[in-house]
């Protein structure tokens, strides 16, 4: 059976189960009212796309830097990265956002116009902790012989990292990074607790204005899928493109 | 080349137990003015450790090394400069698997020796033909045979025109036929006048290419001699028993 057919059949089955569950709800749908708020959804969706892209970029850089620090021979450097990773991964993002904005940003007298930037930064720090462990695993997986070979041909430490180690590590971590980025996009919904006007915040507002809960939140699911599915597809394409056997 | 080594010491710390192991224990070695030095001896005797120091990959704990009266430099920055003047080939995993054979060859020329890509390709073309690798330049290492991989690795070390080559058991991970290809290539280098230091277990090959053979065992060099004298045991009981063991295999 071709793969696409299998995907189609399984998707149809899921859709049938979901359709049956919704059909048995016995409720009157109120799509008309929600439709009037379509521009709020649209703006929120674009806001989420922008936030996620910014956080994605920042968290990749934070993750890579922390991964390098985790591998450091200097105990203090390793300790900074280790404590960052453990504290962030061990606490809820919700708490981090609240502390980040209402405590840290307040203590630093950050103005409300920077609310979104602080939100993105906290999100990037959150995701970066997971990225750090992913990148560290990828870097650790490169055989020491590759480092030796790179040094033997006269590359500097930085050249060896950039030209030999990193390209191989990126290929190894690609699937895990893509998964983490999908999580990041969905986690960005928590920025709504800081009243940042992203997609989930828009849906909450529509819900409280129209009292149509499912009609407000179902478009949310579709909107997030529209962001995450292309990312998964892109990751699979990149994986195929960078595929080579270890030699 | 004339190699002079005095009191070379290298120790390693076992990361788990923290125990210190002495791999080279005050090794002394003085060669004549030769083109090819071959290091032989039992496994764990210190051959590869010595070669890594000669190649500038590791700094010794103590002692001095000089090629043609020129001492090996100290410190990582100076050693990078030194490594750029020599070539090193390991047992296996020399090539970068994410790059094609051609990109593997271009990398040191372009990024270390500052050639333009066009100039680098020009320099690579002829030796690629000579060593029968021209048809494989577009392949990634995974698509090459073990022998082809090692030949590309040797070529990558050679292409930068090093003062000398260091080869650490370049055939030990290969089956006999592929090992033959690689040994033939090294034989050609010898004929072309390339200077090299080679660690090998191929005693027949050692006899053929070596100007002098150094016996490395227990972190020392108890015997250094021209092949003929070496294979007669050169009056050293450890060499005699080593040669007997290798003949039995």
Record keyword descriptors for this entry.
heterodimer; A: 247 residues; mainly alpha; MetI-like fold; 0% strand; B: 249 residues; alpha/beta; Rossmann fold; 6-stranded mixed β-sheet; 4-stranded antiparallel β-sheet; 9 helices; 24% strand
Note down, in words, how this protein is organized:
The complex is a heterodimer of chains A (247) and B (249). Helix content of chain A is 80%, strand content 0%. Chain A contains 10 helices and no strands. In chain A, helix 4 crosses helix 6, helix 7 packs across helix 8 and helix 9 runs antiparallel to helix 10. Chain A starts with a helix and ends in a 6-residue tail after the last helix. Chain B has 9 helices and 10 strands. A 6-stranded mixed sheet of chain B has the order 6-7-8-3-9-10, sandwiched between helices. In chain B, strands 2-1-4-5 form a 4-stranded antiparallel sheet, covered by helices on one side. The longest helix of chain B is centred in the C-terminal third of the chain and has 16 residues. Chain B is globular. Chain B starts with a strand and ends with a helix. The model of chain B has no long low-confidence stretch (mean pLDDT 93). At the A-B interface, helix 7 and helix 8 of A face helix 3 and helix 5 of B.
């Amino acid at each position: 059976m071709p793969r696409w057919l299998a995907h189609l059949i399984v998707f149809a089955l899921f859709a049938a189960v979901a359709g049956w569950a919704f059909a048995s709800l016995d409720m009157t749908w109120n799509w008309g009212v929600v439709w009037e708020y379509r521009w709020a959804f649209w703006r929120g969706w674009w806001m989420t796309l922008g936030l996620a892209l910014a956080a994605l970029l920042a968290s990749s850089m934070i993750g890579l830097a922390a991964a390098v620090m985790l591998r450091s021979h200097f105990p203090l450097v390793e300790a900074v990265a280790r404590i960052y990773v453990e504290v962030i991964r061990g606490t809820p993002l919700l708490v981090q956002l609240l502390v980040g904005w209402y405590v840290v940003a307040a203590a630093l007298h950050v103005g409300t116009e920077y609310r979104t930037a602080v939100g993105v930064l906290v999100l990037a720090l959150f995701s970066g902790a997971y990225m750090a462990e992913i990148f560290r695993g990828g870097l650790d997986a490169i055989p020491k012989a590759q480092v030796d070979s790179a040094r033997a041909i006269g590359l500097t430490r930085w050249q060896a990292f950039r030209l030999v180690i990193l390209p191989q590590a990126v290929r190894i971590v690609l699937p895990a990074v893509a998964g983490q980025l999908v999580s990041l996009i969905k986690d960005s919904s928590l920025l709504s607790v800081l009243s940042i006007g992203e997609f989930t915040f828009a849906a909450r507002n529509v819900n409280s204005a129209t009292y149509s809960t499912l009609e407000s939140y179902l478009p949310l699911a579709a909107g997030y899928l529209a962001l995450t599915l292309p990312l998964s597809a892109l990751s699979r394409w990149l994986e195929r493109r960078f595929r080579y056997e270890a030699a | 080349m004339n190699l002079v080594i005095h009191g070379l010491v290298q120790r390693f710390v076992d990361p788990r137990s923290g125990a210190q192991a002495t791999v080279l224990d005050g090794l002394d070695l003085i060669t004549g003015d030769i083109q090819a030095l071959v290091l032989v001896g039992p496994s764990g005797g210190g051959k590869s450790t010595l070669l890594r120091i000669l190649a500038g990959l590791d700094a010794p704990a103590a002692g001095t090394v000089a090629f043609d009266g020129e001492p090996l430099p100290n410190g990582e920055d100076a050693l990078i400069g030194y490594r750029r003047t020599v070539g090193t080939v390991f047992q296996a995993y020399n090539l970068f698997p994410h790059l094609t054979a051609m990109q593997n060859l271009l990398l040191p020329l372009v990024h270390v020796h500052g050639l333009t890509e066009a100039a680098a390709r020009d320099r690579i073309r002829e030796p690629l033909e000579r060593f029968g690798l021209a048809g494989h330049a577009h392949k990634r290492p995974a698509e090459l045979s073990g022998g082809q991989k090692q030949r590309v690795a040797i070529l990558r070390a050679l292409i930068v025109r090093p003062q000398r080559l260091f080869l650490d058991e370049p055939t030990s991970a290969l089956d006999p036929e592929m090992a033959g290809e690689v040994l033939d290539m090294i034989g050609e280098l010898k004929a072309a006048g390339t200077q090299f230091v080679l660690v090998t277990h191929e005693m027949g090959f050692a006899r053929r290419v070596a100007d002098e053979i150094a016996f490395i065992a227990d972190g020392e060099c108890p015997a250094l001699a021209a092949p003929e004298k070496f294979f007669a045991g050169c009056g050293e009981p450890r060499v005699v028993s080593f040669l007997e063991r290798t003949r039995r295999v």
